[in-house]
């Protein structure tokens, strides 16, 4: 199963593509879609949409896992990220890719068995599970890989307990 993990944003959208075969994870690709600061939101959203479509066409994921939004203070940022998440979801749905959403606490629970794990714990676990030589940077990329791993773990648990 090929999993596309996405950490939505407007300045940076982290993505991670992993394969899960016989309980073994392997990294296909990861990185960040970046948009320029001070660019109108509608331009940024168009760029994000185009880049997500390019990833889908290049890697043909079987499923997509997208982080749910969690914001406690900055409403303006929350709204722009929500727009970006909407554009991402639309592209995933347009290609009929099953999509799953996970909140930050669920992702931490799936990888570290602790819904309140620190970011560095998540990054180290991602590095370990994917047998990477170093923690992926920037954080958005590591988060996207963690989201993909989260879905892989949830999927495996469903198979075990079905």
Description:
This protein has 162 residues and is of the alpha/beta class. It has a single domain, classed as Nucleotidyltransferase, domain 5 (2-Layer Sandwich), CATH 3.30.420.10. Helices cover 50% and strands 22% of the residues. It contains five helices and five strands, in the order βββαβαβααα. It has helices at 41-59, 75-94, 104-112, 119-129, 139-160; strands spanning 2-7, 12-21, 24-34, 63-67, 99-102. It has a five-stranded mixed beta sheet. A hairpin with a 4-residue loop joins strand 1 and strand 2. Helix 1 (41-59) packs parallel to helix 2 and helix 3 (104-112) packs across helix 5. The longest helix has 22 residues, at 139-160. It is globular and about 45 Å long. The mean pLDDT is 92.
What does this entry show, briefly?
By secondary structure, the protein is of the alpha/beta class.
List keywords for this structure.
alpha/beta, Nucleotidyltransferase, domain 5, 50% helix, 22% strand
Please give the structural blueprint.
Layout: E1 2-7, E2 12-21, E3 24-34, H1 41-59, E4 63-67, H2 75-94, E5 99-102, H3 104-112, H4 119-129, H5 139-160
Parallel strand pairs: 1-4, 4-5
Antiparallel strand pairs: 1-2, 2-3
Helix pairs in contact: 1-2, 3-5, 4-5
What is the architecture at the second tier of CATH? 2-Layer Sandwich
Work out the strand percent. 15-25%
Q: Fraction of residues in helices?
A: 40-55%
User: If you consult CATH, what is the topology?
Assistant: Nucleotidyltransferase, domain 5
Topology as a string of helices (H) and strands (E): EEEHEHEHHH
Corresponding CATH superfamily: Ribonuclease H-like superfamily/Ribonuclease H
Category by helix and strand content? alpha/beta
Helix count from the secondary structure assignment: 5
Net shape: globular
- Which assembly state applies to the chains in this document? single chain
Number of domains: 1
What is the CATH level 1 assignment? Alpha Beta
The major β-sheet equals: 5 strands, mixed
Radius of gyration: 15 Å
Quantity of strands, as a count? 5
From the N-terminal CA to the C-terminal CA, the straight-line distance is: 18 Å
Poorly predicted sequence stretches spanning 5 or more consecutive residues: none
User: Would you tell me the overall average pLDDT?
Assistant: 92
């Amino acid at each position: 199963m090929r999993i596309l993990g996405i950490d939505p944003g407007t300045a940076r959208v982290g993505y991670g593509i992993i394969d899960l075969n016989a309980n073994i994870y392997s990294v296909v690709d990861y990185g960040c879609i970046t948009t320029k600061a001070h660019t109108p939101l509608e331009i940024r959203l168009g760029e994000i949409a185009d880049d997500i479509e390019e990833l889908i066409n290049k890697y043909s994921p079987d499923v997509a896992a997208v982080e749910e939004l969690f914001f406690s203070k900055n409403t303006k940022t929350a709204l722009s990220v929500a727009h970006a998440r909407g554009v991402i979801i639309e592209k995933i749905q347009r290609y009929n890719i099953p999509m799953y959403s996970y909140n930050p606490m669920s992702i931490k629970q799936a990888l570290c068995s602790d819904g309140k794990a620190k970011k560095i714990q998540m990054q180290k676990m991602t590095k370990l599970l994917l047998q990477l030589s170093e923690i992926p940077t920037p954080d958005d990329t590591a988060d996207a890989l963690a989201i993909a791993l989260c879905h892989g773990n949830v999927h495996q648990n469903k198979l075990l307990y079905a």
